[in-house]
Specification:
The complex is a heterotrimer of chains A (381), B (152) and C (387). Chain B is mostly beta strands and 152 residues long. In chain B, 9% of the residues lie in helices and 33% in strands. Chain B has a 5-stranded antiparallel beta sheet, with no helix packed on it. Chain B has a 3-stranded antiparallel beta sheet with strand order 2-1-5, covered by helices on one side. In chain B, strands 3-4 form a two-stranded antiparallel ribbon. Chain B starts with 20 loop residues before the first helix and ends with a strand. In chain C, the strands form 2 sheets. A 9-stranded mixed beta sheet of chain C has the order 3-2-4-7-1-8-11-10-9. Chain C has a two-stranded antiparallel ribbon with strand order 5-6. Classes of the chains: A alpha/beta (381), B mainly beta (152), C alpha/beta (387).
Chain lengths: 381, 152, 387
């Protein structure tokens, strides 16, 4: 892949309910932060990709709300519907194609404005599934059962992901739920859908993130802290839950292997120093880690217990606190990318992973991790 | 061959709480309490926008200055609706015909979308002067204005 | 210019009809995909990535990229969803172009689809507009277009007969297109006698609603010449999605069309578009747009659109045929509509348009329209771009 870099990032604080702010207000804040971070003005932006979802926003053509706030009025612009990592992917191709030197990518949503279960219920097939009343939580609970059955992972073990990530969030001023909790707190929290307790689930959140991608000629023009895009890929599994082996994330493995190959990574366990993953539920962090070859299949829980994934461990995972500490859908994956950028720049403050040179970020679309997008980012070109 | 079936979604709906934001909230408070229209002025190009919004899209700059516009204005363009469709907000068909148009409120540079009273269709023309008719019980929504009447 | 030049190597469309209860959404998508694969003589295994689009609230399905994979062929492949309202079909074509041009994928499948029969179309379109400011008093897409027509008529004195002439043209052209939903010739009098929907728009001035899908396969310059003998090269793309609020629109002129077309002409060095372009597939949802928007495109000077239409210049056999397919007035599965324009332009360039073929096509333009008076545009060429 030809060289391209992320040269600016900006995000709002993740909050339970930004009742005072419209989508455009959030985008305006994130975009201006990203421009300032990159030391650019809107005139330096060649084209724009906004990322949103018409269901979450309660509006057909949801991108219409944020055109002016993202500076798109007289520029080429398009909209990806899905996680922000997918929006960023399209933004990257528009740079690699040679059409544009820089792309501004935004992603936003406000979970506070709707009833999440009704929104995710609409992702089920209207003919065969929807009337059964399933939503994202129940789908993922079934996946958790399948994963835990296959690998022997226990509720107590997955609870430790929650303890770690809420603990990490205490060092991240942008996170929604920094918390000092114990495994017992997780196990004693309300059972939402077996085997997932309330503290196994990410919260409902509002937030926005923006990043700026530049081609190799422009990457060093505005500032001296580009983070290079080493490998990136995405892949979807089958749709119907019954068509998949729910205990495994085959499409994530395929996407990850393609991204590693592009990045020239042969031994991810040794070569990658930090990961920001889509931990919408505790078990997912372990499941995604295993599917991405960042630890052996079924061994995630054991390594977790040995503090392997802590900030001071061999492979810190979600040092920012992850989705469990704040989950604005759509923005969530783009925030993972921005967090890796912070780590590789050495700008992550109290949750900095020392010496991080290569990191991986992941985003998810669809029910129970059907479709994944994986980004390998590096400090070196 | 069997008949092709259709599955009805019934009354499935997804309710939302849309945030109005600071600029809009100020507009609706003023509309509700004082029957006044507030626009915002771009500090760079001086364009006066209605609805008021935080960002001038042309200049990519934050607006700060609220200015009163209207209540009178001129029809920028219009149509008269003669077919009924389902209003997604109510699930009911609106009675037809009714007038619909874009009004350039005095002092504004953008147009304000609303209904136009068509009791005399011959008077509904681009450039005609109009004034708003307000609802008795105003709730702080765009329907606090019932419609615009043409002024002779 | 791109890292890789890109060509369209195959297109496919479904049987378009107002209601297709014989297929569900995935099956409808699959019908278009199979047809495009057949046209390009490929199998789904040859496809490296998929771009899909529709408008969510017409069918009420969230995460369509994920839901559609059984029909699209996206199982264990990269699939991404783009959606921008009416412009969706052209937006995904531009998306497919960039995915291939980036060098990351050799062959990309682009799919646009809609089952408009599954909901109330106007009600769903109304939800596109701002819920606080615009939606509660919005009077439907047809009324929005009527407002544009009124503004234009007031400025240039055009009449509803002028609009009807465009409808007569497109409906006549549609009779040559086996994919068109409505294939019936009408007269000016028929149009004017059809029910008035929103002054000055009559029923026969506007598009129908349609169930249908379209698929287009794009390949990079390394493989395209080996895969197909007739290629449609994509020369340039542009999009202007200018407005956020409907009252900001400059009614009577389509600013986005003006800006998008000038960007395209500049990129390709086109100086006299009415002479250098051989055919246009215009996303023209109602008749008056066929007059107004060709002025914005710079085909004719302002105020001269109607005269140009009456001259027959845009009819088949004229100087610059517009909508040989019959256009949107004859067929409108919204999420597919923009991609159908792209596919029809590609067929014209490739010489595969059968009895609706315009002779000796060098450059063709396809457009997309939607959102808040937004425009997408693609320049198609018979020769490989030299930049």
């Amino acid at each position: 892949m030809e060289n391209a870099a992320i040269i600016g990032i900006g995000m709002t604080k993740i909050e339970a309910n930004k009742v005072r702010e419209t989508f455009a207000d959030m985008v305006w804040e994130a975009v201006n932060k990203a421009l300032n971070d990159a030391q650019m003005t809107i005139n330096d932006i060649d084209n724009i990709i906004t990322t949103s979802n018409d269901f979450w926003d309660g509006r057909t053509i949801s991108c219409m709300a944020v055109g002016d706030a993202s500076g798109a009025r007289n520029k080429n612009v398009s909209c990806v519907e899905g996680d922000g990592t997918f929006g960023a992917f399209y933004g990257l191709t528009r740079v690699l194609s040679g059409s544009y030197g820089t792309t501004l990518v935004t992603a936003h949503s406000k979970g506070s404005e709707s009833i999440s279960s009704l929104i995710t219920n609409a992702a089920f097939d209207p003919i065969y599934d929807r009337s059964l009343g399933m939503d994202m939580i129940t789908a993922c609970a079934m996946q958790a059962t399948a994963y835990m059955y296959r690998t022997g992972t226990t509720s107590k073990q997955i609870a430790q992901v929650s303890v770690k990530n809420h603990g990490n969030a205490k060092n991240n001023p942008m996170s929604q739920l920094p918390m000092d909790i114990t495994v017992e707190d997780v196990l004693n929290s309300e059972m939402i859908s077996d085997p997932l307790h309330k503290l196994d689930c990410s919260p409902v959140s509002d937030g926005c993130c923006a990043i700026i991608i530049a081609n190799k000629d422009r990457a060093l023009k505005y500032n001296d802290k580009p983070v290079w895009i080493k490998g990136v890929s995405f892949c979807s599994d089958s749709y119907f839950l019954g068509d998949r082996d729910l205990s495994k994330a085959a499409s994530l493995t395929k996407a990850t292997n393609a991204a590693y190959k592009m990045a020239g990574i042969n031994n991810p366990k040794d070569e990658i120093q930090v990961a920001e993953l889509y931990d919408a539920f505790t078990y997912q962090e372990l499941m995604w880690l295993e599917a991405m070859g960042l630890c052996d299949d079924g061994k995630g829980s054991e390594l977790l217990e040995n503090k392997y994934f802590d900030i001071g461990g061999k492979l810190p995972v979600n040092p920012s606190g992850g989705l469990l500490s704040g989950h604005p859908v759509i923005a969530a994956g783009l925030i993972r990318i921005a967090e890796i950028v912070k780590q590789l720049r050495g700008e992550a403050g109290k949750y900095q992973v020392h010496g991080a040179k290569l990191g991986v970020a992941q985003g998810v679309n669809g029910l129970a991790g059907q479709s994944h997008c994986v980004w390998v980012l590096g400090k070196e070109k | 061959m069997s008949e092709n079936m259709v599955i009805d979604s019934g009354n499935a709906r997804q309710p939302f709480n849309y945030s109005v934001g600071l600029y809009g909230s100020k507009f609706f408070k003023e509309l509700k309490e004082n029957k006044r229209f507030l626009g915002v002025k771009c500090p760079k190009c001086s364009k006066v926008y209605i609805p008021p919004r935080k960002v001038c899209g042309e200049c990519f700059i934050e607006t700060r200055e609220f200015v009163e516009v209207g209540p009178r204005g001129k029809i920028g363009s219009f149509t008269i609706l003669r077919y009924a469709f389902i209003d997604p907000e109510t699930g009911e068909q609106k009675p037809v015909p009714y007038g619909y148009g874009f009004i350039r409120l005095d002092g504004a540079d953008t147009l304000f979308q609303h209904y136009i009273n068509i009791s005399d269709e011959n008077k509904v023309k681009i450039g005609a002067i109009v004034e708003p008719v307000f609802a008795e019980n105003r709730k702080g929504t765009i329907r606090d204005i019932l419609h615009f009447n043409i002024v002779d | 210019m791109g890292k890789k030049r890109v060509a369209i190597i195959g297109t496919g469309q479904t049987y378009h009809k107002s209601h297709r209860p014989d297929v569900n959404g995935q099956e409808l998508i699959h019908e278009a995909v199979s047809s495009a694969l057949c046209d390009a003589d490929l199998t789904i295994a040859d496809i490296d990535a998929i771009v899909i689009g529709n408008m969510d609230h017409f069918e009420g399905i969230n995460y369509v990229d994920c839901w559609s994979v059984d029909g699209s062929g996206g199982v264990m492949k990269p699939i991404i969803k783009l959606t921008t309202g009416g412009t969706t079909g052209s937006t995904i074509a531009i998306g497919g172009y960039h995915l291939v041009a980036s060098g990351l994928f050799e062959k990309v499948l682009v799919i646009g689809w809609e089952k408009n029969s599954e909901s109330d179309t106007t009600g769903a379109i109304t939800t596109a507009f701002d819920p606080v400011w615009d939606r509660l008093v919005f009077a439907g897409a047809i009324s929005g277009l009527a407002v544009e027509a009124q503004a234009y008529m007031a400025r240039y004195g055009a009449t509803d007969r002028d609009g009807a002439r465009v409808s007569v043209r497109d409906r006549k052209h549609a009779c040559n297109n086996p994919h068109a939903q409505l294939r019936k010739e009408v007269t000016i009098e028929d149009v004017l006698a059809s029910p008035m929907l929103a002054d000055p728009i009559h029923l026969l001035d506007v598009c129908p609603r349609t169930d249908g899908a379209c698929a287009v396969i794009m390949a990079n310059e390394d493989v395209a010449p080996k895969l197909a003998s007739k290629l449609d090269w994509i020369w340039a793309t542009s999009s202007r999605h200018k407005y956020t609020y409907i009252g900001d629109v400059n009614w009577g002129e389509l600013d986005s069309m003006y800006n998008a077309s000038r960007e395209i002409y500049k990129k390709a060095g086109i100086k006299e578009p009415n002479k250098e372009i051989s055919v246009i597939e215009l996303y023209q949802p109602y008749s008056f747009a066929g007059i107004i928007w060709i002025e914005d495109m710079g085909i004719v000077p302002r105020g001269k659109g109607a005269e140009y239409i009456w001259s027959g210049a845009t009819d088949m056999g004229g100087e610059l045929p517009i909508n040989p397919s019959g256009g949107v007035i004859a067929c409108n599965p919204i999420g597919a509509t923009g991609l159908i324009r792209c596919a029809e332009a590609a067929m014209q360039v490739m010489g595969k348009a059968d009895i609706r073929q315009v002779p000796d096509v060098n450059f063709a333009i396809s457009t997309g329209f939607g959102g808040c008076m937004w425009t997408d545009m693609i320049l198609h060429g018979q020769k490989k771009p030299d930049f």
